[in-house]
Design goal:
two-stranded antiparallel ribbon, 12 helices, mainly alpha
């Protein structure tokens, strides 16, 4: 969930804010979720946004790293390295390797930046700070607590709740799925075939993202499915579209570059292999097989003259 927002930690809540958190605890407890132990934990924190939300145009290289050449080249390397997994996801769900890679790049820099805030803190912080989204985030909180508590499920989470770290809004994993999406699609997203979904596992994250996009109409309306993945950011879908086009150009260019062909002037009868550099030997294609002249077996001459011929 890529949104550029700056937060500060609230060291102490106002009476009204404390009342909101207390009411949340009471409401959750009625549904079987006791979060009192988390609220009392010294690691529990509330984040408050500073100023207005800032939307970054990811396609503008003066504002963001996303469209810079280095970003696209690294994505091309990623496609090459994980092509099998990406292609398998495409065959099942539709999004191309370039598309999935471009979106993973924007979400988490291909898994390198998945977020450092405990998800439980983030979800409750947004619930507190955004009265207009409390219904939505209450659902996220209950889904998250259910996922964490259900050890029989095939969805893997860390055993310690404060070790589950993600974005400011509570998105978690390499593909940055919100709890509702992880709950819905995680049971089916198994990129490595081990029977489990781990949001921090790259094969599973690739499968999860492709499945989500497919279920939101990617084949008929790719741009609409992309925007659904991260609704609310005006530059999200357009930036990914531009990144995909640039990545496709790089991939096409790489495919057009011929393999280096090194020609050596070799004597037709004698090959002095020692003169060739070791690291070039793998690229040499011999067009003729050079055989050494067989050794003369001089001992036969010694035997034949002295051979006795048997006469009847």
């Amino acid at each position: 969930m890529i949104l550029e927002m700056i937060f500060s930690i609230i060291l102490s809540l106002t009476p009204a804010e404390k009342n909101v958190v207390n009411n949340l605890q009471t409401k959750l407890k009625k549904e079987g979720y006791d979060i009192s132990q988390y609220v009392k934990d010294p690691r529990f924190q509330i984040y408050k946004p500073e100023g207005k939300q800032k939307f970054v145009n990811y396609a503008d290289t003066t504002q963001c790293w996303y469209m810079k050449a280095d970003s696209i080249e690294k994505c091309a390397d990623f496609v090459k390295e994980y092509y099998f997994l990406l292609k398998k996801a495409e065959e099942k769900y539709g999004p191309s390797p370039e598309h999935i890679t471009s979106q993973l790049q924007l979400e988490t820099n291909r898994g390198q930046n998945t977020g450092e805030r405990p998800v439980i803190n983030s979800l409750i912080s947004v619930y507190l700070n955004r009265p207009d989204r409390r219904t939505e985030f209450y659902k996220y909180i209950t889904d998250f607590l259910e996922l964490f508590a259900d050890t029989s499920d095939n969805i893997i989470y860390p055993k310690e709740i404060f070790e589950i770290k993600g974005s400011w809004a509570g998105a978690y994993g390499i593909a940055q799925g919100m709890p509702e999406a992880i709950k819905k699609y995680g049971k089916y997203a198994d990129g490595d075939g081990d029977g489990f979904f781990n949001p921090m596992n790259l094969p599973d994250a690739i499968d999860f993202m492709a499945l989500y996009l497919s279920d939101h109409g990617f084949k008929k309306n790719p741009s609409g499915a992309i925007q659904r993945y991260n609704g609310g950011h005006p530059f999200y879908g357009s930036s990914i579209g531009k990144h995909i086009k640039e990545l496709e150009k790089i991939m096409d260019k790489r495919e057009r570059i011929p393999i280096n062909k090194i020609d050596y002037k070799i004597n037709p009868m004698i090959v002095d292999r020692d003169t060739l550099k070791y690291n070039q030997l793998q690229n040499v294609k011999m067009n003729a097989i050079v055989q050494k002249t067989p050794l003369k077996q001089s001992f036969i001459k010694k035997i034949i003259p002295n051979r006795k011929i048997w006469k009847a």
